[in-house]
């Protein structure tokens, strides 16, 4: 379980600090919503380690994350843009989720692509994949990393309605099967209602259950 206990952060000395308290259990999607500029990216950046809190606690399964650099934190991040390399194939992009020494494990990589429904597109260059297919490749990469915390920042917003539904269902299935604590930042009510078990809203620098 991810736990934030009065985690505080302010931009600059005179700024009023954000105060974040929340829990996100494993095996479930927890949603964070809030107006533009309310601090959702700030919250994700604190959890990911790109910003350092001034006070409070941040733990995953009881382990203090604050002293850990971003690369040592037990998490994967998926953004609206999927951060694939256009000139690499789906398979090569997924391989980047593995440590260098394991990047030749084609069976493992193909199994991950199969799990997201893209087994047939392993050789296709990312530049020639649709938005939904690209998000699936990015999800296959997080599958190989298999970190217990998944941070999703508006991951469905570039997708059309039909694709959105299927990628959303995939995120929900993987969260349950892999027992991830998945944190979904989304403006979209439908996304939140479809897959979030618990919901928080960020307003006036404070998170509250929605
Ligand atoms: N480096 C910074 N220095 C000072 N203020 C910042 C900095 N980064 C963000 N802010 C401010 O902090 C507030 C929260 O920003 P943040 O990006 O976390 O909001 P958000 O909820 O993610 O917004 P959006 O939904 O538009 O992406 C905003 O008022 C923003 O202008």
From TrEMBL:
Residues 2-210 form the ABC transporter domain. The keyword Iron does not apply. InterPro entries: AAA+_ATPase (IPR003593), ABC_SmlMolc_Importer (IPR050093), ABC_transporter-like_ATP-bd (IPR003439), ABC_transporter-like_CS (IPR017871), P-loop_NTPase (IPR027417). It holds the Pfam family ABC_tran. GO terms for molecular function: ATP binding; ATP hydrolysis activity. It comes from the Bacteria. Belongs to the ABC transporter superfamily. This is Thiamine transport system ATP-binding protein. The lineage of its organism: Bacteria, Pseudomonadati, Pseudomonadota, Alphaproteobacteria, Hyphomicrobiales.
